[in-house]
Amino acid sequence: MSEINYDEVNLMLRLYDLRREPRLRQARSWFVENFHPQSPEDMMQKYPQSSEENTYIRMVISYWEMVASIVNRGLINDELFFESNGELWVVWDRMRVVVPTWRAAFKNPHLFGNIEEVCKRLEMWREKRSPGSSAAMRQMLSQLQGGAKVKGL
Q1: What count of Cα atoms within 13 Å lies in the side-chain half-sphere of residue 61?
Q2: Are 119 and 92 in contact (CB under 8 A)?
């Protein structure tokens, strides 16, 4: 285990406090339960720009992009962050299908690159500790999305 300092722990706790803000908590809950775009067109149709759902999407993604930026700059130790922040991986798993279109539309190949980079490291860290766990999580999330009851839950 690597050395963790007080400032990293304090920053983690502050980020956790932000996650508890009622509107962001509501947006996160909606996102995890309902955000399943099959394509960019599907997303635009289901969650138009002026909708409450679109606001939730932007809140969740911008929160996690900010957090990922902090982690990528080394202000929080990867292992410390990975041990208790799997939601970021779920967010990336849901949004990755539409990110290439967003990057092309905004002519910004780095758009949401912080989330993507942290999630690559998170998945490598997780697979090193528990091989096959990422595939198992994707399968479980897919089953939950389809409305199936997951064995053991």
Answers
A1: 19
A2: yes
> Is pLDDT at 2 greater than 90 in this prediction?
no
By C-alpha distance, which of 46, 51, 49, 20 is closest to 34? 46
pLDDT at 119 (0 to 100):
97
Domain residue extents for the chain: 6-145
pLDDT per residue over 35-91, tens digit each? Answer: 999 888 898 899 999 999 999 999 999 999 999 999 999 999 999 999 999 899 999
What pLDDT, on a 0 to 100 scale, did the predictor assign at position 1? 60
Q: What is the DSSP string of 52-100?
A: HHHHHHHHHHHHHHHHHHHHHTTSS-HHHHHTT-THHHHHHHHHTTTHH
Which residues are CB-contacts of 111 (< 8 A; sequence separation ≥ 6)? 99, 102, 103
